[in-house]
Design a protein that fits this description.
alpha/beta; binds 6-O-phosphono-beta-D-glucopyranose; GH_1_N_CS; 6-phospho-beta-glucosidase; Glyco_hydro_1_AS; glycosidase; GH
Length: about 475
């Protein structure tokens, strides 16, 4: 019956990003990143990115949850839950404050040394995203960020510093968080200001191309430094259903998904497919792609696919369909079969099974579910742990479906990390009250609170899930 059990080395854990939890935005020689100029927004109101740090504006990521100073306490809690791995990212501006320096900032490297050592002390495998939604602000202002080919070399300098320093401590890497978000929210994903470039699509796909090349060269570099490294890509998996069984709706849905597969195709297969090329031609997109780029893409295909999965969407071929629902970076039509989160994201656990099948059928490469979780309002009653049964319900249903994908459908899934295992600053809204954690952090949307950590009910639940290797879900 062993095939009905998850493998013993399944990587259970949690995930955060540097900019959403570290805080200490100007400590240890750190430079200013795009996340540091993101003001607070709220549900239904996007965050404003200011040109520079402005007096009187509240920037939630500046202090975040102060993980920079409290990582030991937090990792001890992760260890108590039994984490096998912990996914975080590197704050680029800790290592290269402006981004175009030749030599890395030792204080920044030393911080990540301490952080990874702390994980390893408990047998927790660090899983590192090299770039997660922050770009050095100086590179945005001086070079136009990823609209400029020079970014490839700046990024590779970062990768070189990281791989050389940490290759014996960190085995699992991802090059860019949710690389397909660059065309959906270029400011958040890649520091590309609104209005940069003459044709938006041209500019964004060009920037994506530079990221593809940067990522491929990073994969090659990492493998050259240490062939044992596993270097993956990471995409937001925007599962979408056709609204009806009409062929038109299904065709439209297929075309929507094609735009996302373009990103995984290039990184997994190492080339632009004929369909991608036709899409560019149809839309008048002419990219600066050199012969060397094409060779680099081929030489740097990824070892695994990391995905974030929170929700699903619905697509219609009828443009005037107006029953819209908000989602993670994307909007769609209301799905009457699904419930929604407090932030209107449509909850679809079965969708995770479908997503995993779709990706595995397409690529036969291991998949790592590096983000899945529920952003919800937790009600704090003094002296009692937060009773987050809704989070337990969400996570257990998703894990159950992931198990079906693995044990019934034969999908190769390496691991699962709960997004925001500790409460952190929301990427889309800058709120603290959109909580994902199994550990509560006493901090509100105005930046008030003691920052004290507290176990929620889901803490004990997840501990049990990991202890039983996913056997006990309720
Ligand atoms: C993913 C991002 O898109 O979704 C994370 O990789 C983000 O950075 C997560 O935090 C949840 O989104 P939000 O907007 O609720 O923080």
């Amino acid at each position: 019956m062993s095939e009905l059990k998850l493998p013993d080395d399944f990587l259970w854990g949690g995930a955060v990003s540097a900019n959403q939890c570290e805080g200490a935005w100007n400590v240890g020689g750190k430079g200013v990143s795009t996340a540091d100029v993101a003001a607070a927004g709220k549900h239904g109101e996007a965050r404003l990115y200011t040109e520079t740090i402005q007096e009187g504006v509240y920037y939630p990521n500046h202090d975040a949850i102060d993980f920079y100073h409290r990582y030991q306490e937090d990792i001890a809690l992760f260890a108590e839950m039994g984490f096998k791995c912990f996914r975080t990212s590197i704050h680029w501006t800790r290592i290269f404050p402006n981004g175009d320096e030749k030599e890395p900032n030792e204080e920044g490297l030393a911080f990540y040394d301490r952080l990874f050592d702390e994980c390893l002390k408990y047998g927790i495998e660090p899983v590192v995203t090299i770039s997660h939604y922050e770009t050095p602000l100086y590179l945005v202002q001086k070079y136009g960020s990823w609209t400029n080919r020079k970014m490839i070399d700046f990024y590779l300098n970062l990768c070189k510093a990281l791989f050389k320093r940490f290759h014996t401590k960190v085995k699992y890497w991802m090059t860019f968080n949710e690389i397909n978000v660059i065309t959906l929210n270029p400011e958040v994903a890649a520091g590309i200001r609104p209005g940069q470039g003459d044709s938006r699509s041209q500019t964004l796909y060009q920037a994506a191309h530079y990221q593809f090349v940067a990522s491929a060269k990073a994969v090659k570099l990492g493998h050259d430094i240490n062939p044992e490294l596993k270097i993956g890509m990471m995409m937001l998996y925007p599962l979408s259903y056709a609204e009806t069984c009409s062929p038109e709706d299904n065709l439209e849905n297929m075309h929507n998904m094609d735009l996302h597969y373009l990103f995984s195709d290039v990184q997994v297969r190492g080339y632009y497919t004929p369909k991608a090329k036709k899409y560019f031609a149809r839309n008048g997109i002419v990219l600066d792609i050199t012969e060397q780029d094409l060779q680099d893409l081929q030489a740097g295909t990824v070892d695994y696919i990391g995905i974030s999965y929170y929700m699903s969407l619905v697509t219609s071929a009828t443009p005037e369909r107006k029953i819209k629902v908000k989602g993670n970076m994307l909007d769609g039509i209301v799905n009457p079969y699904l419930e929604k989160s407090d932030w209107d994201w449509q909850i679809d656990a079965v969708g995770l099974r479908i997503a995993l099948n779709n990706l595995y059928d397409r690529y036969q490469l291991p998949i790592f579910v590096v983000e899945n979780g529920l952003g919800a309002i937790d009600v704090k009653v003094e002296g009692e742990p937060i009773q987050d049964d809704y989070r337990i319900a969400y996570l257990s249903k998703h894990i159950a479906q992931m198990k079906e994908a693995i044990l019934v459908d034969g999908v190769d899934v390496m691991g699962y990390t709960v997004w925001g295992c500790i409460d952190l600053v929301s990427a889309s809204t800058g709120e603290m009250k959109k909580r994902y954690g199994m550990i509560y952090v006493d901090r509100n949307d105005q930046g008030e609170g003691t920052l004290q950590r507290e176990r929620k009910k889901s803490f004990e639940w997840y501990k049990n899930v990991i202890r039983t290797n996913g056997e006990t879900l309720l």
